Amino acid sequence: MRAFVLFVIAGATAGASVGCGGAAPRAATVPPAEVAAAEAPPVEAPKAGDEPATADELPARGDAMCSAHSDMFGPYSLSEAQASQRYGKNARTFADAPSTKDQAIEVCGIPASRQWLRGTACVDGSTARQNGRLGSVGPGGRCGSIIDHYTVTCPEGNYDVFIDMYMCGPGESMR
Q1: Which of 48, 60, 66, 146 is the one with CA 20 to 30 A from 77?
Q2: How many domains does the chain have?
């Protein structure tokens, strides 16, 4: 097995100060496994009961749906019943579904986000002016997904629209 060589300033660990003309570095060998372990973040062991349930076993609302997650960055797998109850699904106007970082509009993917924004109207029925995506606001929504923040302008005022694009029903794709 090859050993990696790391240089350590002599006396630095004992609190000695080393300036110009100080002690020369000395080599210390550290096995590769120890170097990798020192650089890797700690990993928590799974807890009992953390096994994900299937989407059909999850309630239509609530934290249990959040365990139906294929991977850390992928979508949540919703049953047909859950998908039909996503927040903002039946909104006709922006006023029908006020959103926040913690109660975001729930869709599946970027195209669905755009479709929701285009298909939702102002209170008077007119089309909103899309001001664009302001960016990500970090984790939020029902399951702690990354939430996107958009703004739109209507005659009655501006709306901040927060969208969780990780809530996917059967047959839906993030693309």
Answers
A1: 48
A2: 2
Print the domain residue range for 131.
55-168
d(CA 45, CA 15): 36
Question: Could you tell me the CA-to-CA distances from 20 to 12, 24, 149, 152 in Å, in that order?
Answer: 14, 10, 52, 60
Report the distance separating Cα 131 and Cα 148, nearest Å. 13
- pLDDT tens digits along 103-141: 999 999 999 999 999 999 999 999 999 999 999 999 999
How many other CB atoms sit within 10 Å of the CB of residue 175? 8
SS3 category, 169: coil
Kindly state whether residues 66 and 146 are assigned to the same domain. Answer: yes
Q: What is the pTM of this model?
A: 0.63
What is the residue-wise DSSP string for 60-124? SSSGGGGG-BSSTTS-EE--HHHHHT-TTTT-SBGGGS---SSS-EE-BSHHHHHHHHHH-B-TT
Residues 74 and 159 reside in one and the same domain: yes
